[in-house]
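re: ur question from yesterday

yeah so i grabbed the chain u mentioned. its 265 aa long if i counted rite. heres the sequnce exactly as i have it in my notes:
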Amino acid sequence: MREVRPGPAPRPIPPLPEVEQEAAAAKPTSERKFLEGAQPRGLELLWAARVFWQFFRGFRALGFEGPCVTVFGSARFKEDHRYYVLARELGANLSRAGFTVMTGGGPGIMEAANRGAKESGGRSIGCNIELPEEQFPNPYLDKMVLFRHFFVRKVMLAKYSYAFVALPGGFGTLDEVFEAATLIQTGKTKDFPVILMGVEFWAPLMDFLRGAMLAAGTIHQIDIDRILLTDDPQEATAWIVDAAMRKFGLSYRKERPRRWWLFER
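ran it thru and got these structure tokens back, copy pasting raw so excuse formatting
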């Protein structure tokens, strides 16, 4: 694996669009209260309207980006960790291949992938999330969209991506990568590449898939064959490029026209 040398100092994050600042400043309602069961109809209608507004903001902000590759991973790894270095090199490789790197926008693996893309002159996007303990966006983003609900954020991370790469992480990473795998397995989305990087970390999970789930018949061999396990950013990028170009006919078309009456900028 090539050594990734430190790049230039990060530039300050530009001011967010007005609508994003408004969303960031709003006090989040209690999702725990909502999930307790039926609420007054008026409150549930208001909640649905807020969800729609998040989707609208996401579509408007991300509809002109791409083609994207989404990178998942833990927010807890520091700059000197080997998985941070691996994610940074991956982001650089994806950028040089012409992809926009999309992450959850936070620190750790997300920062590393965004950083690699940014330092290589590519586009770097973050879909951040409001949390009780605030998760600040990393300083390597060209664009950041802030979401209140995890399920809206996951839709955005999946909708615009030609591939999904998961580096070591916790519950959130597992949730995201298995969400992508389920969408592919059930035919809800195309057979996009799913890549696990960090062979040592993911080996027990792959053993469980083969030794327990496959043996019990809860998944099929094809579900496992869709997953590439590697520690090589170049191999991962080549697999993604091959699938995007050959299998899905990706071409670099002219940018979509922006409609002023949809507040597109």
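noticed a couple things. Residues 1-28 have pLDDT under 50 and may be disordered. also Residues 7 and 119 are 6 Å apart (CA to CA).
anyway ttyl
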